[in-house]
Amino acid sequence: MSIRIGILGYGNLGRGIEVAVRDAEDMELVAVFTRRNPDSVKIRTGNVPVVSVQEIDEWKDKIDILVLCGGSATDLPEQTPKYATMFNVIDSFDTHARIPEHFAAVNEAANKSGHIAVISVGWDPGMFSVQRAYANAILPDGGDYTFWGKGVSQGHSDAIRRIKGVKDARQYTIPKEDALKKVREGSLPDLSTRDKHLRECYVVLEDGADAAAVENEIKTMPNYFADYDTIVHFISEEEMKRDHSGLAHGGFVIRTGKTGFDKEHNHVIEYSLKLDSNPEFTTSVLIAYARAAYRMKNEGQTGCKTVLDIPPAYLLTQSGEELRAHLL
Amino acid sequence: MSIRIGILGYGNLGRGIEVAVRDAEDMELVAVFTRRNPDSVKIRTGNVPVVSVQEIDEWKDKIDILVLCGGSATDLPEQTPKYATMFNVIDSFDTHARIPEHFAAVNEAANKSGHIAVISVGWDPGMFSVQRAYANAILPDGGDYTFWGKGVSQGHSDAIRRIKGVKDARQYTIPKEDALKKVREGSLPDLSTRDKHLRECYVVLEDGADAAAVENEIKTMPNYFADYDTIVHFISEEEMKRDHSGLAHGGFVIRTGKTGFDKEHNHVIEYSLKLDSNPEFTTSVLIAYARAAYRMKNEGQTGCKTVLDIPPAYLLTQSGEELRAHLL
After folding, report:
1. Among residues 251-280 of chain B, which lie with CB inside 8 Å of chain A?
2. pTM for this one?
């Protein structure tokens, strides 16, 4: 029997889930829920209804895992605890600083209703967290470094777009090669914000806007840019559309550490991602953890879990026997 | 209370475990067991007894986890099932093809006696298996590639040493840069054995041995060298000792795969290790999984487990709350 998947929210993430479910042999998409008028939402899978979120409680017994595809700023803090009272849920909540409170709210709701909830699934938090966990456990005497990019930062792009005179903007976060090199050498370098990442901005101006003033406002913006080396390019709308529509991203988690009676041996563990589509990779991770959530629920587990609580074997369709024979 | 660790076998792995336990805040070494005369074995930790393996059953209630540091060829197939009847055990059994039968024997013994056993812990099998599992789960439509090296292969070095006229030998397995490059491009290349790795051999000859004959015998040896590009260097005993005593190793696990409605997006997941000491890294992994074994045992779990069955959080000393706040 297939794992019955529901999607709440049909943006980049929702569309990615739709494709990942299509490609998963053990899953089927049963409904897409939307806050919009359902008639206005066209999905790509035939014979699957688009349903108003107002009617979601009628689907309680028809869905095994509801994948929440909202944003972390305002959607998920409300949605995940709310829907954990009715469904087994999974989200990609990615505001690191607020994970403890999100966990507490979701855990309470899921435990009370007897459901499983998995939060903060994706690549960071998500696969990068898993890598940090393994590497810290193996090399307790060391340090780890996370680099992001090259890829678009939505938050930084939005910050530029709010500047007067800016019509559109895209900001790439780029790890500095020199910093990566130092980290890999195992010297545990003390790296400042400026040392680790470069910020490269592509900006389309409104007619008559003052380029120098915009550039200055970007480069001196506290928190977002002031602590970084920032490069600003002014381009046309056509160039923006042609060259900067991609959703590529990636990054590195590197931990180096020492072992030995006299700490004479150095080790480097490196994990890297190079992604053509940030949202599709995120949804591929979500779907693997949806499979795990289904299995945990069938074992009678309830409450909130994160990627750190889930064994790798739970993400795969194969039996333990097959995995030991072919993958271990 | 500390986790009480016992070591069986005091070679490279046993010594590595000793150091890793010293560096683990939640563990203490309580005894080292040996098949040799205990008086002949000097360990580096003060006030810890070296005990004949004949007397190991007297230690049943004094040890939480017994770490088996024998070899995979003949020691572990016998030792792990045997000692799983008396102790919670962990081993680094690394003969991939025989894992299913090893698992079956250990699982039966551990279940019968009510102990936990964790097998095949290290880096391959071990951390590389974990990486293959995650990457396969996330990118089902793709392929993965494992490369080993640069590092000494014990089996291949031994094979050269068995050739008549060879006094000593060291064989390095080296991944080919060109193959790594092709794999990272995401084209899922079809790579032969020869395409992936190079074998570089350093050989000390006996007096009067025929170098050309030895070189030919190495290069044409079935299974070990015939299918590879093999380079042979003849060196002196002094050079061998000076330049080839290290235990460095490493490798790469790379999976590339496609997502998207039309499979238009490519993704690269890469995990790499660069290790100054192969045995010390292996023992660092073993000690992290010994911590997990202790926790599983306290939860009442029994039977045989592998790295694929164990959540990352179990490897760490921190609470779930601390991990969510600082590492997730």
Report:
1. 259-261, 264-277, 280
2. 0.96
